[in-house]
Specification:
Elements: E1 5-8, E2 10-18, H1 20-25, E3 34-40, E4 42-43, E5 46-47, E6 49-50, H2 60-66, E7 80-87, E8 93-95, H3 99-105, E9 114-121, E10 126-131, H4 136-144, H5 148-151, E11 152-156, E12 162-165, E13 171-173, E14 177-184, E15 190-193, H6 209-215, E16 228-232, E17 235-242, E18 247-259, E19 266-279, E20 282-287, E21 291-294, E22 301-313
């Protein structure tokens, strides 16, 4: 049986970052403006490193290209990217392209559809999720007139909320929010508005207005979200979203749960609690902030303890 693949994350400095990735997860962050933990990533801008087993020291990208027996995927690149974001200040208002637009305009990069599980939120914290414009002409006019309060739709959030953010959705995390983000493996973002902030050199940050207008969904379309929940011994599984880009679930383990081998590889992120992964005669410790991949046909196995995990698959 293959081993689980535990991964060391990559941290990214951001103007809106802070210290919560250390405070909440115990990560050894590089500085006081650490905004992103790229936890499971094979993207060239930040690759996770294998921490254990026969592939220790390899990047996830190397594993994907040279050991497809672990994944059995038709995708030419590792298709998903799991992040944890610390929005200690407001993120820029932004929008992402779909696969077709990104492929033509961003050197073959994937588009970026994503989703957010709210891990932590200060009282009153809110996100921007969509807009009120009814036509592209109205969108452009409201942007040109800087009518941001009228244009942008704001929603208050709390721990445990979930949002699906397809490409074309104007969005932003607000101050005081920590999310686990599952997304396509893309680093393409079109910045719409940035509160007139300056970068560390005193310059206004670049906006990408024409590309943002090109790709924004107008009028805003909201896909209904309906959660399916499955209960079995030791575990409650909540399916948060399942579509052509990814399937994302929340697992709540209380006690011991038994699993059979899955024909798909599985990305696992422990967002709270502690416990163990038991496979045959091997026992792996699981703690908050750990990220790992279960290869194709890994199992049977057990998870025990009190654990909250976010699970994703192609």
């Amino acid at each position: 049986m293959n081993e689980p693949i535990f991964l060391a994350p990559v941290f990214q400095e951001r103007i809106w970052g802070g210290r919560k990735l250390q405070d909440l997860f115990g990560y050894d962050i590089p500085n006081e403006l650490t905004g992103e933990c790229w936890a499971v990533s094979a993207h060239p801008n930040g690759q996770s490193i294998v921490k254990n087993g026969a592939y220790q020291g390899k990047t996830l990208g190397q594993l994907w290209s040279s050991h497809q027996e672990l994944f059995h995927s038709d995708s030419p690149v590792f298709p998903l990217l799991t992040k944890i974001l610390d929005a200690s200040d407001n993120l820029s208002v932004q929008v992402h392209p779909d696969d077709e637009y990104a492929g033509k305009n961003e050197n073959g990069e994937l588009g970026k559809t994503e989703c957010w599980y709210i891990v932590d939120a200060e009282p009153g914290a809110e996100i921007i999720y969509g807009h009120e414009a009814q036509s592209k002409e109205q969108l452009v006019q409201m942007m040109n007139d800087a009518k941001w309060d009228d244009l942008l739709t704001k929603i208050k959030v709390k721990r445990g909320d979930f949002f699906y953010v397809p490409s074309g959705t104007i969005h932003a995390l607000g101050k005081g929010i920590v999310v686990l983000e599952t997304q396509q493996s893309s680093d393409t973002t079109y910045r719409v508005y940035d509160y007139d902030r300056k970068d560390k050199d005193g310059n206004g940050r670049e906006l990408h207005l024409q590309k943002a207008i090109d790709v924004s969904t107008v009028p805003q379309a909201y896909e209904p979200v309906s959660y399916e929940t499955f209960n079995q011994k030791g575990i409650t599984i909540t399916q948060l979203v399942s579509n052509e880009f990814f399937t994302v679930q929340k697992w709540n383990i209380d006690g011991t749960a038994d699993f059979t081998a899955n024909p798909k590889y599985t990305i696992c992120s422990v967002i709270d609690g502690s416990g163990q992964l038991i496979a045959g005669d091997k026992v792996y410790s699981l703690s908050k902030g750990e990220h790992f991949i279960l290869p194709v046909d890994f199992g049977p196995y057990q998870m025990s303890g009190t654990l909250e995990l976010i699970i994703s698959r192609e």
